[in-house]
Amino acid sequence: CVVDRGGLFLELTRPITSCDFCQSPASVVELEEMTKEDFLRLGYSDRPIVLRGAARRWKAMAVFSFAFFRELYRNVSGSFKNNRDYCQFFKYKTEFKDLEDFLGMPDSRADLTDPEAKTWYVGWSNCDQRVAKVLREYYTRPEFLPQDSEASVIDWIFMGYSGNGATTHVSDQPT
Questions:
Q1: Helix (H) or strand (E) segment spanning residue 78
Q2: 1, 38, 143, 147: most buried, per Cβ within 10 A?
């Protein structure tokens, strides 16, 4: 092909999308439980949905932490290299070069026990199937999703502190 269809090309050719509907929503749907029928009725509307407690039964809620991810990646041989070579790492407003650099930060900064520590927020895609196998032991697919809905083979992990992170944006990241 003459033109690379990634990055800038995608941005220049992306259809104009109105963001008006999410500027000041008239109402927010708040639910404690969601059925497949609820999802089909509400999931594709332009109304925000807050589903409270959807992950309450996931083991991840009690296990996932900075220390968990640090040990997982350190214990899976080659996972940092795989992440550098094949995955994406979003450092946002931090100085971290990559996932290995991020997971190597001192505990005092990771848990903000040092009052002088800078806050942080990062995100990354996990492309290592050995890591994915471990992660998926801790959560399940939401039961309200239709059977024919697509699931990504890539897990995305975002972690950090309030006030940091990504601004509202349109993501063109492959899943």
A1: none
A2: 38
